[in-house]
C-alpha cells in the first residue's frame, strides 16, 4: 500500500522532538522511498525564521546525528520538501495565515487536500490548537481530502484531564482521525510480540495461568531527566513510562487473540486488558507499588547529580524517578498470576525487557539448579541488543545429573543486518497510510488512567510515605533486588 499525496504540518517545529525524532524519521522514509510521491512538511512555530534558515537547522541536526547515513544529494532534495511558517499558536487570527500558507503550497506543489497535523508542542497546547484549526475550517476538507491529527504523549495527566482532552478533540476530529502516539508501539521488537504470539501455535497453549508463574516487564534507563525538569516534576516515572509505554507492552503480552488482524480488533483486545486490571486499593497503593528517587552517583563512569539538584526541580521534590509495581489482571487467562513492572532513571544499565516466567515441573527433581524458581523463561529483549531467548535446563555431560540452565537465543540483527527502523519512522508512515493499529484508542487510554489514578491520589495524600532513595548508577532502591523479591523486603506499611 502506498501513502497518498499529502502534507504534514508540524506544530512545535522548533522543538526537540521535531529535531531529534520527526525530521530524522522523515528523512529515513524519504531515503527508503516510502514517502508519498508528492509530499510537503510544513513546520510551524513561534520563532521567526525563513524556510532557508529552518532547512539549514534541520540539515545541521541531521548531519550531526550519528544514526543517519547521509548522502548529500538525497539530503538536498529532502530539504526541498520542508517549509516553515512563523506564527503564534496562541492567537486565533494567526491561523488564517497558516491556512493561506497551506493553500498556497497545495496549489504550487499540486498536492491534494490531505493534511496530517502533528502536535509536537507542550501538552498545554493540545487543547488550544485544535479549536483554532476548527475556527478557520482547517479541521475538515472541503475538497474530499483527509484530515488526521497526531497527538504526542502525555495525553492528559489523569483520567479527568484525558477525558476532557478526548471530548474536546472529538468535537473537532472523528476518533478515526485522531492518532495518539506512543512511540513504544513503533518499536520493531514490540510489534514482534504480536507475531511471536499469533504466528506460532506452540506458545498459545502455554500462555496462561496454568503454565505461567509470573510476568516481569522492566525498563531501566541510564539517562536522567535531561533538560525536562519542568515536565518531569509534573509527571514522574508512573506517568512518564508506566501509564503509556509499559502498559502497552503489558497489553501485547496479556491480550487475547484478536478476531482478525485489523486495527479495531487489535485495539478492542488492548482495551479489554486495561479494563480487566484489578483496581488498586489503598493498601495496594502502598504495598504493591514502590517508588524511588535517585541521589548523586556515577552512571557509566560519569558523575551525576541527584534528582533534586537537576534544573527546574524543587530542592525538596518528592517526584518518583523509579517505580516497581505488582498487579493482577482479573480475567480467565491471567487469574491469580502476578504481573510486575519496574522502571527507573539513572540506573546501572539501559535495558527494556519482558520475561515470562514459566511454572516449574510438578515434581522438582533438580530443584535449585536453575537461576529462577523454574528452568524456563522466555525473555523478549526490546532494547538494546533486540532479541528473544528461551531458557531451559540441560544436563551437564558427565557423571550424575547436574543441570545447567541454557539459552536458545535469537538476535534481530541475524534477520536484518541494517539497523532496525526507528519507532517514529513506522508510526509516521502508518499515520500517512491511515493505519491506526499502533496508536492508542480513547477508551483504552482512559482505562489505563483509571488504573493509575488511585496510586497518584494516594501519593498526593502521603507525599513522602515509602519514597525510597537510590544512588544514581545502582539497581534502584533496595540494592541488588531487581525482581519481585523487592516486594518481600523492607517494611510494609499498614493502612
Ligand atoms: C519517553 C519518556 O516517552 O520515553 C522519557 O518521556 C524516556 O523519559 C523515553 O526516557 C524512553 O524511550 P526509549 O525509546 O529510549 O526507551
From TrEMBL:
Matches recorded under InterPro entries: G6P_DH, G6P_DH_AS, G6P_DH_C, G6P_DH_NAD-bd, NAD(P)-bd_dom_sf
Key words, A-Z: Carbohydrate metabolism, Glucose metabolism, NADP, Oxidoreductase
Gene3D superfamilies the UniProt entry points to: Dihydrodipicolinate Reductase, domain 2, NAD(P)-binding Rossmann-like Domain
Keyword Protein biosynthesis appears in the UniProt entry: no
SUPFAM superfamilies: Glyceraldehyde-3-phosphate dehydrogenase-like, C-terminal domain, NAD(P)-binding Rossmann-fold domains
UniProt pathway: Carbohydrate degradation; pentose phosphate pathway; D-ribulose 5-phosphate from D-glucose 6-phosphate (oxidative stage): step 1/3
Residues annotated for substrate binding in this entry: 183, 187, 221, 240, 345, 350
Chain positions recorded as NADP(+) binding sites: 12-19, 46, 153
Enzyme class, UniProt record, top EC level: oxidoreductase
Name of the protein: Glucose-6-phosphate 1-dehydrogenase
Protein's organism: Coprobacter tertius
Native organism taxonomy: Bacteria, Pseudomonadati, Bacteroidota, Bacteroidia, Bacteroidales
Gene name tied to this protein: zwf
Amino acid at each position: 500500500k502506498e501513502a497518498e499525496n499529502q502534507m504534514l504540518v508540524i506544530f512545535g517545529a522548533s522543538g526537540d522532538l521535531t529535531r531529534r525524532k520527526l525530521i530524522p524519521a522523515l528523512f529515513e522514509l524519504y531515503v527508503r522511498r516510502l514517502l508519498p510521491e508528492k509530499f510537503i512538511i510544513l513546520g510551524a512555530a513561534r520563532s521567526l525564521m525563513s524556510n532557508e534558515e529552518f532547512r539549514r537547522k534541520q540539515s545541521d541536526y541531521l548531519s550531526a546525528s550519528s544514526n543517519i547515513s547521509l548522502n548529500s544529494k538525497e539530503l538536498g532534495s529532502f530539504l526541498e520538501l520542508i517549509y516553515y511558517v512563523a506564527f503564534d499558536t496562541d492567537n486565533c487570527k494567526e491561523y488564517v495565515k497558516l491556512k493561506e500558507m497551506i493553500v498556497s503550497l497545495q496549489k504550487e506543489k499540486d498536492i491534494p487536500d490531505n493534511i496530517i497535523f502533528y502536535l509536537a508542542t507542550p501538552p498545554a497546547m493540545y487543547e488550544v490548537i485544535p479549536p483554532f484549526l476548527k475556527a478557520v475550517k482547517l479541521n475538515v476538507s472541503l475538497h474530499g481530502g483527509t484530515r488526521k491529527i497526531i497527538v504526542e504523549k502525555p495525553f492528559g495527566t489523569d483520567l479527568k484531564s484525558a477525558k476532557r482532552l478526548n471530548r474536546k478533540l472529538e468535537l473537532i476530529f472523528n476518533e478515526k482521525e485522531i492518532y495518539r502516539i506512543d512511540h513504544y508501539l513503533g518499536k520493531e521488537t514490540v510489534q514482534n510480540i504480536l507475531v511471536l504470539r499469533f504466528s506460532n501455535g506452540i506458545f498459545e497453549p502455554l500462555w496462561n495461568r496454568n503454565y505461567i508463574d509470573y510476568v516481569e516487564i522492566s525498563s531501566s534507563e541510564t539517562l536522567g531527566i535531561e533538560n525536562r525538569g519542568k515536565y518531569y516534576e509534573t509527571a514522574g516515572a508512573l506517568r512518564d513510562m508506566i501509564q503509556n509505554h509499559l502498559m502497552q507492552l503489558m497489553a501485547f503480552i496479556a491480550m487475547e487473540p484478536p478476531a482478525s488482524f485489523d486495527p479495531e480488533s487489535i485495539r478492542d483486545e488492548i482495551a479489554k486488558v486495561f479494563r480487566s486490571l484489578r483496581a488498586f486499593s489503598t493498601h495496594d497503593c502502598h504495598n504493591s507499588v514502590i517508588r524511588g528517587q535517585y541521589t548523586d552517583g556515577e552512571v557509566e563512569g560519569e558523575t551525576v547529580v541527584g534528582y533534586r539538584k537537576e534544573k527546574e526541580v524543587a530542592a525538596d521534590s518528592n517526584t518518583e524517578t523509579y517505580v516497581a509495581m505488582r498487579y493482577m489482571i482479573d480475567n480467565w487467562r491471567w487469574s491469580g498470576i502476578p504481573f510486575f513492572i519496574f522502571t527507573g532513571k539513572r540506573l546501572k544499565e539501559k535495558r527494556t525487557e519482558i520475561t515470562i516466567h514459566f511454572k516449574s515441573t510438578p515434581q522438582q527433581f533438580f530443584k535449585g539448579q536453575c537461576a529462577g524458581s523454574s528452568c524456563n523463561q522466555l525473555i523478549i529483549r526490546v532494547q538494546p541488543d533486540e532479541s528473544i531467548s528461551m531458557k531451559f535446563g540441560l544436563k551437564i555431560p558427565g557423571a550424575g545429573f547436574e543441570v545447567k540452565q541454557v539459552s536458545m537465543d535469537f538476535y534481530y540483527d541475524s534477520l536484518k543486518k541494517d539497523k532496525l527502523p526507528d519507532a517514529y519512522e513506522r508510526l509516521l508512515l502508518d499515520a500517512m497510510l491511515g493505519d491506526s493499529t499502533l496508536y492508542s484508542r480513547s477508551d483504552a487510554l482512559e482505562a489505563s488512567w483509571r488504573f493509575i489514578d488511585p496510586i497518584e491520589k494516594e501519593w498526593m495524600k502521603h507525599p513522602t510515605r515509602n519514597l525510597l532513595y537510590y544512588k544514581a548508577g545502582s539497581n534502584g532502591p533496595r540494592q541488588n533486588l531487581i525482581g519481585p523479591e523487592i516486594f518481600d523486603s523492607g517494611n510494609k506499611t499498614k493502612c
